[in-house]
Please model this.
Amino acid sequence: GDSVTQMEGPVTLSEEAFLTINCTYTATGYPSLFWYVQYPGEGLQLLLKATKADDKGSNKGFEATYRKETTSFHLEKGSVQVSDSAVYFCALLPKAAGNKLTFGGGTRVLVKP
Amino acid sequence: GAVVSQHPSWVICKSGTSVKIECRSLDFQATTMFWYRQFPKQSLMLMATSNEGSKATYEQGVEKDKFLINHASLTLSTLTVTSAHPEDSSFYICSAIPGLNTEAFFGQGTRLTVV
Model:
């Protein structure tokens, strides 16, 4: 079945540091890929998405590129802020009917001033 | 983006009572809504898929008689935790999609504590 694997956290870094969260997936066909962010005590917010190979999703300084050859969708940000402290989830949505998202385990990021 | 509102944000109830959680899509019609459960520091676990006007489809291991789902309209789905027990304490999150193969929009979650 479909699966998403992302690096375990917590990831602790200083303000203005470079952030990378690795995400790889296993799926039949070519799913859409997403990064969601969850702030403490809240639901999930869509951060960015990509629907086909080589697409780059970007938002709020975060970027991720859909790499079909490596089945990856790594999240990056060049200079993090304290407000980026949250849990980040990588997810895939298969093209087949069902619309069920498959989530990775989540990566907690803590940015210290 | 589209807004999904979940209510209440938190609730405390006594063991043995039932609790209803609402999930509303405020500015779009949701053909499908999903209910998730999230344990501390873990990922989301899909509980059930809810389609308007039909019975919910539950994931394996989820008790349908304990977690009653009703999707009476295209903008409202409810999850009722019946005869709640302390082990039902968790963070419950709903999501809604406006159509096939579209992105999901999430509610803000409901923290349920059963005492």
About this structure: The CA atoms of residues 17 and 79 of chain A lie 5 Å apart.
